[in-house]
Design a protein that fits this description.
Elements lengths: L2 H11 L5 E3 L5 H9 L5 E2 L2 H7 L10 H14 L4 E4 L8 H14 L3 E5 L5 H17 L5 E5 L11 H17 L3 E4 L5 H10 L4 E4 L7 H7 L3 E3 L3 H20 L7
Parallel strand pairs: 1-8, 2-3, 3-4, 4-5, 5-6, 6-7, 7-8
Length: 253
């Protein structure tokens, strides 16, 4: 499958009922997730950063981020979308350098977040990316992440108004999807899906409805984020403690 074919496939996966993405952090996890039946692979920036010894939060060097995407793309047969945080660059031009590398690595899509910065900055990055993709006669699925709830805003009419403002801003800039993490309230999710013209992506968090119910609310994409990586690390710690402290092999086998 060529990269263009992977992008086309990835776009179609957002047409419904719901695309479920248990995020990967390296080649091994990507292969396991693909073998479990995933139709696409999404990376987790926190997981990829941890593998390389960096904290999450745009600290991972661009070269390592792009190399990780390239290794995962080579290892799986399904489309890969890369979480590139805020783009590993200070401005839209530098973010485009990251995107150019991710495209060359074979990714079908990216996840790009507004973090604690001005949403207008993310809109400018999206516009620049759309220009880059057009000039190179290529394609890329751009998922714009809105961090209103991740940054601690309560579920309220005011926060919903800001979420919808950002959704309109990112859609106008050329985003293909809209990601609203750390939201579990079903009624708010439904209202966002009804108002936003882009496929809506939510994050698996405690209290979130099951995928089938999310699909009925209008959600088109569900991400697991860094939770699979964190669960794997908890399991590894437990097994190590059993072996080191109890001399037990039971958990290993």
């Amino acid at each position: 499958m060529t990269r263009d074919e992977r992008v086309e496939t990835f776009r179609k996966l957002h047409q419904g009922p719901i695309l479920v993405l248990p995020n990967a952090w390296d080649v091994a996890s990507a292969r396991v997730i693909e073998e479990a039946g995933a139709k696409a692979i999404a990376t987790t920036s926190a997981g990829v950063a941890a593998v390389h010894g960096f904290p999450d939060g745009n600290q991972l060097p661009r070269s390592l981020a792009v190399a990780a995407v390239e290794r995962i793309v080579r290892a799986v047969g399904v489309p890969v979308t890369a979480d590139i945080e805020q783009g590993y660059g200070a401005d839209a031009a530098e973010v485009c350098e990251t995107v150019r590398g991710v495209i060359a690595a074979g990714a079908a899509g990216i996840n790009l977040e507004d973090g604690k910065g001005a949403p207008e900055a993310l809109a400018a990055k999206i516009e620049a990316i759309r220009g880059l993709v057009a000039r190179e006669q290529s394609d890329l699925f751009v998922n714009a992440r809105c961090d209103v709830y991740l940054n601690g805003a309560p579920v309220s009419p005011e926060s919903l108004k800001e979420v919808l403002r950002r959704a309109a801003l990112y859609a106008e800039a050329g985003a293909d999807g809209f990601f609203v993490p750390f939201l579990a309230d079903g009624d708010t999710i439904r209202r966002i899906c009804e108002a936003v013209p882009l496929p809506v992506n939510v994050l698996a968090v405690p209290g979130l409805a099951p995928p089938a119910e999310l699909a009925r609310l209008g959600v088109r994409r569900l991400s697991a984020g860094s939770s699979p990586m964190r669960a794997a690390m908890r399991s590894t710690r437990r097994l190590a403690k059993e072996l080191l402290e109890q001399g037990s092999y039971d958990g290993l086998f």
